[in-house]
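Tokens in:
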């Protein structure tokens, strides 16, 4: 019984580490997505009012 509880604690720690890593990567991906979309919107707006476009 003692070894099982030890393995349970190890698996709980590993599970927490994996969940924390996934959460950090998810937040990082969202930040990169927001930055990319802001740059892309700025680029598209610049293309609409550029010298080659008569608008």
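Residues out:
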């Amino acid at each position: 019984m003692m070894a099982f509880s030890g393995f349970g604690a190890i698996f709980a720690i590993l599970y927490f580490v994996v969940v924390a890593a996934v959460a950090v990567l998810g937040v990082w991906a969202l930040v990169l997505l927001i930055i990319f979309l802001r740059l892309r919107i700025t680029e598209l707006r610049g293309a609409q009012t550029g010298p080659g476009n008569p608008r």
